[in-house]
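Hi C.,

You asked whether I'd gotten around to modeling the 510-residue construct. I have! Everything is below, sequence then structure, no commentary in between.
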Amino acid sequence: MDFELLKDLAQTLTRNKLKQIEVLGNADQASSRTQVFFDGLLDNKFKSEEDIARFFFGQANAKDPNYRKLKNKLVRQMLNTVFFVDVNQPSFNERLKAYFACYRVFAAAFVVMLRGSDKAGIYLFEQVLEQSVKYEFIELCAEITRHLRTQTARITSDQKQHQLYVTLHRQYEEKRRLEMLALDYHEELVDYYLIRRSPNQEVRRLAEMYFNELMPLAEKADTSRFYYYTYQVGIIKNFAVNDCQAVLVLVDEALLILGNRKNTNRSMLQSIALQKLACLNQLRIFDNNIGAATAEYCLSLGVEGELAWFRTLEGYFYYLSYQQKYQEAFLIFEKAINNSRFLQLEGIFKDNWLLLGGYLHLLAALGKLDPIHVELIVGPYRYGKLVNEMESVDKDREGMNIPLILLPMLFSLAIGDYQDYGRSEEALEKYRQRYLDNEMNQRSAAFMSMLMALDKKSFDMAAAERRIKKGLEVLSEEQPQVIGQNFAIEIIPYEDLWAMLTDKEKEKSK
C-alpha cells in the first residue's frame, strides 16, 4: 500500500471516529464483568441464564434489563474478538490461515469502501483476490471480482482493467455455479441413499446420470471442490450396489487428481482416503501393508485430536480387526482414548468407541487379549453401564444397534453363561424378525440365529445343526454391506467370531 493510500485509510478511520475496541482478553478487561461472564461460561460455572443473573445481580431473572445489557455487551465483545483470533496454532494449516486472513481483509475492504475510501478498498480487494486465486477460494473470488468490476467502472478510467475484472467475474461465477451443481447433486444423493440403505438400483441410476453430467464439465470448472463432489457422486453410484471394487478405482483416481492440486483442502483428501480404507477392509485387501499406509496418509493430513483423527483410528481399528491383528487394534484403541480430546467426542462418534471397548472385552474372554490389560484400559465390562452411556447407537434398530445387541450374546457364550443375553430369547427373536430379516441385514440375521442355535445345541442337536448350517451358507454367500454406514456393523467378521466360539466349545469338551 503506497503512501497516498495509507494516508487515505488513516483519514477514513479518523473521519468515522475511532472508538475503543471492546475485545476480550485485554489487560484492563481482566476483572470486568464481561470477562468474568466469559470465563464462567468456559469453566461451566453457570448452568443457566438464571444462574448468571443471580451471580451478577442477585436475582434469577434472565429478563432483567441489567442482565440483558451485560449479555449484549459480552456478545458484542466476543464478535469483536473473533477478528483477533490467533491463527498461529497447530490446528491452522497454511490454507486455513489464508482462508481466515482473506475473509477478514475482505470484510475490512468492504467496510472501508462503505466509509468512503474507495481507492483503499480497491487496493485491499486486489490483495485478497491474489490470495483467493492462489488458494482456490472460488466463492470469495466471485464476490471480490463482482465488487472490483463495479468500482473500477465507477471511479477509474482504465477500461482495460475494468474489462479484466468483468472477464474474471464471469469466469469465477461460472466456476461457483458448477461447484454448487456438484454439491447439490451430492447432497441429494446422500439424503436419498442413506434413507434407502439397502442395495438400490434407483440410487445407482440417479447417481450415474449425475456423474455422467458432471465429468464432462470438470475441465471447465477445474476446481478441487468440483472434483471432490463429482467423485463423491461417482462413489455413491457404486456404493449403491455395494460395488467396492469400482469404488476403490474411483477413490484412487480422485486421490491422484486432488493430491496433485497443491491447494486442495486436506479434509477432502482425508474423507476420500477414509473411504479407501473402508474398501480395502471390505475387499480383504491386506497385501503390502496398504491399509497401514492409507491410515498413515489420513493421519498426516490432519491434527491429532480432531474428529477426523479419531475417525481414521476407528477405520484402522476395523482394518486390523479384520486381519485378526487384535493386539495392534487394541493399541489403536488405547491411543485414541488416551488422547486429551477423547472426552469431547459426542453422539455416534463417542458411541462407536464405547462399543469397540466392549468388543475388546469379548476378545479377552475368547483368549485373544490379556483380560487384565483390557480392563485396565477399557474399564470393567458392564453391559448395562455401556448401554446407558451411549447417546445414539441404541436408537438405530438396523444399524450400529446390531453389534450392541449381539455383544452380550457373544460374551455370554464366550464365558459359558448361555442365559445372560441382556434380554429374553423371545425378545431377541422378535428383534431379529422385525429388523434383521431384510436384504441389508441378512448376515446379521443369520449370525444371530446361529448364536441362538448354539445355545440350544445340547437340547436338540439335529435342529441346532440344521440352523447353524443354514446360517453358515448365508455368511458364505453374502458380503457385509457397507452402504449408508459410517461405522462397521461387523466389528469383527462374523466368520471369525464363530470360529473363536466353536474353538472355545471344543476346548471345553476335551
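If it helps when you're writing up: The mean pLDDT is 85.

Thanks,
B.
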